[in-house]
């Protein structure tokens, strides 16, 4: 019979007491040591207490693989975020006309804060110099028509201070 690992025994005891004494539904995640091989598994338990029949009815689900996958994804996202945040290159993710992500170098170059650049009502064209607006609009129209475009091009941005900055962009389309 599988037993909860010692650190999780209190979690189960509290949840069980809440279930029986206060009629709080039992929705708990805990770890067990599997007796067959000693492997630690992550279990999600949902239960209800039937006062009339004085019994607990519930479901146990082994979510070990899901938990491991979620942790690996979290670690991968943290690494990627660290690379983006520490890059000396301005990095942004543009979805439609909206910046979904900007890094500190982008903010330094434009004079915007991340919150300003990523605000729902902020239009990316606000950082373009007037002479680059047409270039960007032409690239967008060609892309929408399905034309192949070079991944690298140059344009000018207008920083909040009014300073014009020539940039060389290397873009990758993410679908």
**Low-pLDDT sequence parts:** none
* Biggest sheet statistics: 4 strands, antiparallel
Report the principal-axis shape: elongated
State the distance separating the first and last CA atoms: 48 Å
Strand content: 25-35%
Strand order of the largest sheet: 1-2-3-4
Alpha-beta classification: alpha+beta
Number of strands: 8
Cα gyration radius (Å): 27 Å
Query: Helix content range of the residues, please?
Result: 25-40%
Mean pLDDT equals 89
Spell out the helices and strands N to C.
EHEEEHEEHHHEE
Number of helices: 5
Q: What this model shows, in words?
A:
It is a single chain. With 175 residues, the protein is an alpha+beta fold. The protein contains five helices and eight strands, in the order βαβββαββαααββ. The protein has helices at 6-22, 64-86, 104-110, 114-117, 130-144; strands at 3-4, 26-33, 40-50, 55-62, 92-95, 98-102, 152-158, 164-170. The strands form three sheets. It has a four-stranded antiparallel β-sheet. The longest helix has 23 residues, at 64-86.
Could you name the key traits of this structure?
175 residues, 4-stranded antiparallel β-sheet, two-stranded antiparallel sheet, 30% strand, elongated
Overview in brief:
The chain has 175 residues and is an alpha+beta fold.
Task: Summarize the SSE layout with pairings.
Elements lengths: L2 E2 L1 H17 L3 E8 L6 E11 L4 E8 L1 H23 L5 E4 L2 E5 L1 H7 L3 H4 L12 H15 L7 E7 L5 E7 L5
Antiparallel strand pairs: 1-2, 2-3, 3-4, 5-6, 7-8
């Amino acid at each position: 019979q599988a037993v909860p690992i010692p650190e999780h025994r209190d979690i189960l005891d509290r949840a069980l007491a809440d279930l029986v004494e206060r009629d709080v539904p039992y929705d708990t995640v805990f770890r067990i040591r599997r007796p067959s091989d000693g492997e630690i598994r992550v279990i999600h338990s949902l239960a209800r207490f039937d006062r009339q029949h004085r019994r607990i009815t519930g479901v146990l689900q082994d979510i070990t693989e899901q938990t491991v996958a979620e942790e690996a994804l979290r670690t991968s996202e943290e690494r990627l975020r660290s690379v983006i945040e520490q890059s000396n290159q301005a990095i942004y993710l543009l979805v439609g006309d909206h910046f979904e992500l900007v890094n500190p170098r982008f903010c330094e170059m434009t004079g915007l804060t991340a919150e300003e650049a990523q605000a729902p009502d902020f239009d990316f064209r606000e950082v373009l110099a007037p002479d680059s607006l047409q270039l960007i609009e032409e690239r967008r129209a060609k892309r929408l028509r399905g034309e192949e475009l070079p991944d690298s091009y140059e344009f000018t941005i207008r920083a909040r201070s009014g300073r014009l900055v020539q940039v060389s962009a290397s873009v990758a389309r993410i679908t």
